[in-house]
Write a structure and sequence with these properties.
Helix 1 runs antiparallel to helix 2. The chain is mainly α and 77 residues long. It is built from two helices and no strands. The chain has a domain at 19-70.
Length: 77
């Protein structure tokens, strides 16, 4: 029965927390990726591909969290 609700956030407070966490991860991941590629200069991370991959993973996790939080729960029993 528990697997049926996997990937859905039902309570409003929980949903808001997951949306904020997902948005922050997405934005920070984009910045890290940009610095890793050298698009955003002015940091020790600039031009270091490691930060690009770290940013890519962070952005992906942020998108997944946003998708989970924004999914509408099914109505029913």
């Amino acid at each position: 029965m528990r697997a049926r609700y996997l990937g859905r956030v039902k309570r409003r407070g929980d949903r808001i927390v997951v949306i904020v966490a997902g948005a922050i991860l997405l934005l920070v991941g984009i910045v890290f990726g940009g610095q890793g590629l050298g698009v955003i200069p002015g940091s020790v991370m600039t031009g270091d591909r490691t930060w690009f991959y770290i940013g890519l993973v962070m952005a992906f996790v942020g998108v997944v969290l946003l998708l989970i939080a924004l999914r509408r729960p099914r109505s029913g029993p």
